[in-house]
Every structure is written in C-alpha cells, then in structure tokens.
Write a structure and sequence with these properties.
Number of domains: 2
Distance between the termini: 44 Å
CATH architecture of the largest domain: Up-down Bundle
Oligomer: single chain
Shape: globular
C-alpha cells in the first residue's frame, strides 16, 4: 500500500509525528504537503477531504492519512492504525493500549507547548497575546515542562524490558514522538530544556537513539525534513524564556 499523508505545507507540526513513523517503518508514502498545487497536492488536495461533499467521514483537521479507501484523522489515531502495520507497536492488546495511552499523554504535552505562544487561541496572532504568552510560558517552564519530562523518565525507568524505550524491548511510535517533542523543545527553549533534561537523562538518551537510527538519520538529513520555524508548533521567541 502507498499511503498519502495530508498536512499543511511549510511546517512540521503534528504531521511530523506521522512522518517519523512512516520513515522508520520503511513505508511507501506520498507527503501531499510537498506535492505542488499544480501536481494535485498542497492545500487544495487537503481541502477536498476536509470540505468535500463526497467524503462520508471527513476529518476535522490535518493531519490525516489516506490508506486505500480509509481516511484516518487525529495523530494518535493514525499512529494507532500504523503502529502494528509498521512494526512500531506491541503485538499484545495490553501493550498496544499502553503505547496509545503514552501517545495521548504526549498529545496533551504538545497542546501545552503550543499554548506557550498561543494561550488565548489559534485565531489570534502571537503579537496579539504577548503578555499572556509570557505568563503562560513562565508557568510552563517552571512546572509543566519538568513534570511531563519526569513522567516519561519514570516510564523508561520502570520499563521491565530494558529501561531504554518507553515500552518493551523494541522501539515504538511513542518513542519516535517523544524524541520529536524533545527536538522541538530544544529549538523553542534551548536552555530550559537542557536544564530539565539533566534531571531526565534517559529521555535525552532516547532522543539521541531515535535520531541515530539509520532511516531517521537519513530522513532528518534530507530535504523532506522541514526546519523548525516560527509558523510552527514549536517556536523560538526569546522573550518567552531561554
């Protein structure tokens, strides 16, 4: 099967969590955000599924994945579908549920990261909510960032099958997603992330191990891996914290 991934052009965003799974799993896929509009890709292709009258079960927002006749939305839901097919999830039902739970916790983490620069809402520009962003970021860096990283550190420590990954002895899509979150935090808040990760060395090691994997390393060095930027989920505004 050749998958089609739909997401906003020009940013990594939540689509990147799906891309990492597809890359690590060696899947054949088309990143429709990289296909020019005149070639049938881009925003126009995405809108056919979001707003088109012929889609019986339309996704609410990107990312979404077209897999044969299926159109699957929501990052965690897409990864729940892809995980077993790409060898990135446990085989047993309990293990699958646990990894899905970890992914949902990461989704909560991502929302809080996003809200450091958009605490009042995505419909407003950052410049329209700077005072609130500063206040939100201060609380996030002091309390929420270390709380989330400490949780994932404890999950790795308590993993009975190796204390390297979040679940079991093999890498899962949740490991890929956690590594991406760490990469994004290092971009957005380099000093604060370094300080927090000193107390969570296993999370830092997990990040390095993921981005050293051959397929992920090749992807990260390619033009397909877009750079972090200030139109994205992770943003670097020095006034919000170091």
């Amino acid at each position: 099967m050749i998958y089609e991934l739909y997401y906003w052009p020009g940013i990594q965003g939540r689509g990147e969590f799906v891309r990492l799974a597809l890359e690590e799993g060696g899947a054949e896929y088309v990143d429709m955000a990289l296909v020019p509009e005149e070639g049938g890709g881009g925003v126009s292709a995405m809108m056919r599924f979001l707003e088109g009258p012929d889609v019986a079960r339309p996704p609410f927002a990107p990312p979404f994945l077209k897999a044969g006749r299926r159109v699957i939305g929501q990052t965690a839901n897409i990864l729940l579908f892809l995980g077993p097919r790409l060898g990135l999830a446990p085989r047993d039902a309990s293990g699958k549920l646990w990894v899905h739970q970890l992914q949902l916790t990461l989704a909560d983490f991502i929302v809080e990261i996003h809200d450091t620069h958009h605490p009042l809402g995505g419909g407003l520009y950052y410049e329209e909510q700077k005072p609130e962003s500063k206040r939100r970021s201060k609380e996030f860096l002091a309390n929420r960032l270390p709380k989330y990283l400490d949780y994932f550190e404890r999950v790795i420590v308590r993993n009975p099958d190796g204390k390297r990954w979040l679940s079991g002895s093999a890498l899962t899509y949740a490991d890929l997603s956690l590594a991406q979150v760490v990469a994004g935090l290092r971009y957005a808040f380099p000093q604060s992330s370094a300080d927090a990760l000193r107390a969570c060395p296993r999370v830092a090691v997990l990040h390095d191990a993921v981005f050293a994997r051959p397929r992920i390393k090749r992807y990260a060095a390619s033009a397909r891996r877009l750079a972090f930027n200030n139109d994205d989920l992770f943003r670097r505004y020095p006034e919000l914290g170091k």
